[in-house]
């Protein structure tokens, strides 16, 4: 019995150093992530670069997996959990320490999981082939230099720019001449108006509360107000009654960025919302198809990925606005 207890104690004692090595590796990884993010945000390229989106999750996941599995027979599932631990930890740090918004965190998580898995994969493959640790083949500490080198690259390599066009439509049982006045100004929007959307109902992005029009024709200004004190302007560039209304966006203050997320700057280095408008298309049954569109450009290392979120968020906003307009047209028709 004494021999068995002694054996169990030795086994537990042998596990503790390995556990603390893993915890230490995670702590170092989080420190490097915070330092790299802070340096990137202070640089001319901004925080949304190759370092934060690609290099950090791959390099730090490989570092933690290498150090944590030294002298231990990790199963494949444990290797796969490393990017999960890092991603969750980074999300918590971002939300608490840097006050990152929910949209930014949700956009970052899939990238950290994906590139983290890519970083862990070669470590896992090497561990399958060798039980020993040969530092001349793979030095884990060298992985921590990759984000620093990547930061230098980010400052000198500009990410690509791409333009996108988001469109949503709705059909109403009213002719264009009845629809047109409802588009010019939308005052006193009640919280019950509109539809449920992922972006605004689930993620908590603000919803419109009203829009007023000053002037007529090209050069007229639509002042829009949303929840949380969000304000912006739509300066009319095309005015065709009963046919089309088009505008360019103007953001006179930082209310959108302050209310949503530091990195959602509609006229910033990574995102530039250019223009929008309504098209009124008569239908054969005497109704109207209302088409609402928005054009913007993105400048990020992963524009196609960013555009997926742009399609969802802007599409949700457009669907909600169209539902408000359609609801008001229907109520007005019922009161006739």
TrEMBL record:
Membrane-spanning intervals of the chain: 20-41, 47-67, 79-99, 105-124
Domain of life, per lineage: Bacteria
Keyword tags: Membrane, Transmembrane, Transmembrane helix
InterPro entries reported in the protein's UniProt record: Polyketide_cyclase/dehydratase (IPR019587), START-like_dom_sf (IPR023393)
Record-given protein name: SRPBCC family protein
């Amino acid at each position: 019995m004494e021999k068995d207890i002694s054996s169990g104690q030795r086994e537990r004692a042998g596990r503790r150093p390995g556990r603390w090595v893993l915890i230490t590796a995670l702590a170092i990884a989080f420190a490097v992530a915070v330092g790299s993010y802070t340096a990137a945000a202070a640089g001319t390229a901004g925080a949304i670069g190759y370092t934060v989106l690609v290099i950090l999750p791959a390099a730090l996941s490989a570092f933690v997996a290498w150090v944590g599995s030294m002298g231990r027979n990790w199963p494949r599932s444990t290797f796969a959990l490393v990017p999960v631990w890092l991603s969750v930890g980074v999300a918590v740090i971002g939300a608490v320490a840097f006050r990152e918004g929910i949209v930014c965190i949700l956009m970052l998580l899939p990238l950290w999981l994906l590139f983290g898995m890519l970083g862990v994969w070669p470590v896992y493959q090497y561990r399958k082939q060798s039980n020993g640790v040969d530092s001349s083949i793979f030095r884990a500490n060298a992985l921590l230099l990759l984000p620093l080198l990547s930061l230098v690259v980010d400052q000198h390599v500009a990410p690509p720019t791409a333009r996108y066009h988001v469109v949503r439509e709705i059909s109403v049982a009213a002719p264009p001449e009845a629809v047109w006045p409802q588009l010019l100004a939308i005052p006193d929007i009640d919280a019950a108006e509109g539809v449920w959307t992922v972006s605004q109902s689930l993620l908590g992005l603000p919803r419109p509360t009203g829009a007023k029009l000053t002037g007529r024709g090209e050069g007229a200004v639509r002042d829009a107000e949303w929840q949380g004190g969000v304000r912006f302007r739509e300066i009319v560039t095309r005015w065709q009654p009963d046919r089309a209304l088009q505008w360019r966006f103007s953001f006179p203050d930082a209310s959108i960025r302050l209310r949503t997320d530091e990195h959602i700057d509609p006229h910033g280095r990574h995102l530039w919302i250019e223009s929008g408008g309504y098209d009124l298309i008569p239908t054969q049954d005497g109704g109207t198809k209302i088409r609402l569109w928005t054009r913007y450009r993105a400048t990020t290392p992963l524009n196609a990925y960013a555009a997926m979120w742009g399609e969802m968020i802007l599409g949700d906003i457009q669907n909600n606005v169209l539902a408000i307009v359609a609801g008001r047209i229907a109520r007005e028709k019922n009161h006739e």
